TrEMBL record:
Pathway of action: Cofactor biosynthesis; molybdopterin biosynthesis
UniProt: S-adenosyl-L-methionine binding residues: 29, 70, 121, 192
Protein name: GTP 3',8-cyclase
Residues binding [4Fe-4S] cluster 2, per UniProt: 257, 260, 274
Keyword Nucleotide-binding among record annotations: yes
Catalysed reaction, written as an equation: GTP + AH2 + S-adenosyl-L-methionine = (8S)-3',8-cyclo-7,8-dihydroguanosine 5'-triphosphate + 5'-deoxyadenosine + L-methionine + A + H(+)
Subunit structure, as described in the record: Monomer and homodimer.
Species for this entry: Cohnella pontilimi
Enzyme's top EC category: lyase
Keyword set includes Cytoplasm: no
Gene (name only): moaA
Radical SAM core domain segment(s): 7-221
């Protein structure tokens, strides 16, 4: 079976699967605090439908799946989907992105059914600031989720920190120290304007060159590091003598589109070739036909743009395509 190769020669081996747009947080960079309209539950793909789409993807060379949301752990029975993905021929890696609030009691079960590793969103190590950024939840429970993931053997554990100018940039040093003291992999991520080009994004956007500047200021000897499993677009570094690593994911200031190997399946059943642009392909008419599903994935290769042009947006320049109006939680991070 031919691999999924787009017009620019990029081979796609990775599918991110959103199982819900709902979330138990309201992070200030992701959605409004009140008034968010969520999908009716009957509009979500069922787990058997997701597995049907994933099976077609696997036959076309997809070897890596990541389960996302919204917050995926708010959807009951997630272990059923993980077990089904683990049974697909050729699948090598199944991971989960979560805010960690519900992870502690589920970590062992998820591992036992086939989950390999987790990325846990953690934008601050300060309890009061956590409530300011997430507008919900409890930092203690998230940290318990990190511990439970380690005890269950979900490795490597990556902590995703979205840096926000004027909000948490003063904690860069604390996160770097965390990578020194514990075998954790910190991922600093630039704030992206997904679904909302507004002043909140422009005022809080911070290029990740700030992280290396802070490391130098603190006197750390930094060297490039071997990427842990599933590192994706991260530029990985290690502080001399550290137990873990840190990485920079900077889609705006230094976009990584030239190496993109991923597609997305939204919770309501659309293949997105690119996170940023509006283009989507609905899978529902193709359900029941593996040939039709495979044709949709090949169509995604035909329409995928070369890059997302977020840097042009920041600079106030014209863009060549139409940006999505969906927020990150509605697409799948």
């Amino acid at each position: 079976m031919p691999a999924l190769v787009d017009r620019f020669g990029r081979t796609h081996t990775y599918l991110r699967i959103s199982v819900t747009d709902r979330c138990n947080f309201r992070c200030l960079y992701c959605m409004p605090e009140e008034g968010m309209q969520f999908m009716d539950q009957e509009k979500l793909l069922t787990y058997p439908q997701i597995l049907e789409v994933a099976g077609a993807a696997a036959r076309l060379g997809i070897r890596k799946f990541r389960i996302t949301g919204g917050e995926p752990l708010v959807r009951p029975g997630l272990e059923q989907l993980i077990a089904g993905l683990a049974e697909l021929p050729g699948v090598k890696d199944i991971s989960l992105t979560t805010n960690g609030l519900l992870l502690a009691p589920q970590a062992r079960k998820l591992k036992d059914t086939g989950l390999h590793r987790v990325n846990i969103s953690l934008d601050t190590l300060d309890a009061a600031r956590f409530r300011f950024i997430a507008r919900r939840g409890d930092l203690t429970r998230v940290l318990e989720g990190v511990e439970a993931a380690a005890e269950a053997g979900l490795q490597p554990i990556k902590l995703n920190c979205v840096l926000l100018k004027g909000v948490n940039e003063d904690e860069i040093g604390r996160f770097l120290k965390l990578s020194v003291d514990q075998p954790l992999h910190i991922r600093f991520i630039e704030y992206m304007p997904i679904g909302h080009d507004d002043e909140n994004w422009r005022s809080h956007y911070l290029p990740l060159s700030r992280v290396l500047e802070e490391a130098e200021k603190l006197g750390y000897a930094v060297e490039q590091a071997q990427a842990p499993t599933g590192s994706g677009p991260s530029e990985d570094y290690k502080i001399a003598g550290a137990a873990g690593t840190f990485g920079l994911i900077h889609p705006v200031s230094n976009h990584f589109c030239q190496n993109c190997n991923r597609l997305r399946l939204t919770a309501d059943g659309n293949i997105k070739p690119c996170l940023y642009w509006v283009d989507e392909l609905n899978v529902r008419p193709a359900l029941g036909s593996q040939e039709a599903l495979e044709a949709l994935f090949r169509r995604a290769m035909d329409i995928k743009p070369e890059n997302h042009e977020m840097a042009a947006l920041l600079a106030g320049e014209a863009q060549s395509h139409v940006p999505t109006e969906r927020r990150m939680s509605q697409i799948g991070g």
